[in-house]
Amino acid sequence: MDWHAWHDRYASPNSPLRQRLVVVQDRIRDALAGAPPGLLTAVSLCAGQGHDLIGVLADHPRRDDVRARLVELDERNVAAARAAAEAAGLAGVEVVAGDASLTDRYVGLVPADLVLICGILGNVTDADAERLLDHCTRLCRTGGTVVWTRNRRLGLVDLVPQVCAWLEERGFERVWVSDPGLDFGVGAHRYGGEPRPLAPGVRMFDFVGYDALRGGR
C-alpha cells in the first residue's frame, strides 16, 4: 500500500475519507472546547499528513495552547505534515518520523489531553485493536479525550460496538459515536480513570494493513 498516494482521496469532497475527516475534525474541536484552560497536550498515532489535527489547529482559538506530537512512519507524509504545520504557523506541533506503535515515541507528552488513533483500528488485528485501546489508559490523562476511527465496510467485521465496549470497560465514557448507517465509524471517549504508567520499549500494535486483513477473511 502506498500510504502517501492514499492521502490523495482527501482532496475529493465526495469521498468517504474526506467525509470522515470532517467528522473527526468536529470531534477534535469539541474536545478542545471542553478542555481546561491553559496548556494542552495532544498525540496522534499513525498521523499520516496530519490533516485532522493540523486542519483544526490552523484557525482554532486555542492553537497556541496546544503542544502536539504527530508520529508517522512514511517520510513523504512526515514532510507533508511538517510543511502544513509550518504553513499554519503551528510552532507547538512536532512531527516525528518513526514507528507509531512504540511507546517510546510519546514519552514526555503523555498522559495527554487529546489522543488520536485515527486510521489504525481497521489496519490491525482485533486482538491488537484491544491492546492499543488498553494502552490508551496510559496515553490519556484523566478527563482527556480519545478520538478514534474504524471502517465499517471493506469486508471487515463491524468492530465499532466492540471498540466502544473495550474502552468503556477501561474507564472511558462514551461522548459521541457516529451513525451506524455510515461507511465509517468515528468515536470520542473521555477517560475517567487514573492514567497508568507508560512502560518504555513496548509495541502497542502491529500495523498489518486493511488490504492484508481483508484478504485473509
CATH superfamily: Vaccinia Virus protein VP39
Q: What is the distance, rounded to the nearest whole angstrom, between the alpha carbons of the first and last residues?
A: 18 Å
What structural class do helix, strand and pairing data support?
alpha/beta
Shape, principal axes of CA atoms: globular
Helix content: 25-40%
Strand residue content: 15-25%
Please write the string of helix (H) and strand (E) elements: HEHEHEEHEHEEH
Rg, nearest Å? 16 Å
Largest sheet: 7 strands, mixed
Mean pLDDT: 93
Arrangement of strands in the largest sheet:
3-2-1-4-5-7-6
Instruction: Examine the coordinates and then state which fold CATH places here, giving the name of the CATH topology.
Output: Rossmann fold
CATH class: Alpha Beta
**Uncertain runs:** none
CATH architecture: 3-Layer(aba) Sandwich
GO molecular function: methyltransferase activity
Pfam families: Methyltransf_25
Domain Methyltransferase: 45-144
Protein name: Methyltransferase domain-containing protein
SSE arrangement:
Elements (H helix, E strand, L loop, with lengths): L15 H19 L5 E6 L5 H7 L8 E7 L2 H13 L5 E5 L14 E6 L8 H14 E12 L8 H10 L2 E6 L6 E8 L18 H6 L2
Task: Summarize the structure in words.
The protein has helices at 16-34, 51-57, 75-87, 126-139, 160-169, 210-215, and strands spanning 40-45, 66-72, 93-97, 112-117, 140-151, 172-177, 184-191. It has 217 residues and is of the alpha/beta class. The chain has a single domain (5-215), classed as Rossmann fold, CATH 3.40.50.150. A seven-stranded mixed beta sheet has the order 3-2-1-4-5-7-6, sandwiched between helices. Strand 4 (112-117), helix 4 (126-139) and strand 5 (140-151) form a beta-alpha-beta unit. Helix 1 packs across helix 2. The radius of gyration is 16 Å and the shape is globular. It starts with 15 loop residues before the first helix and ends with a helix. 41% of the residues are buried. The mean pLDDT is 93.
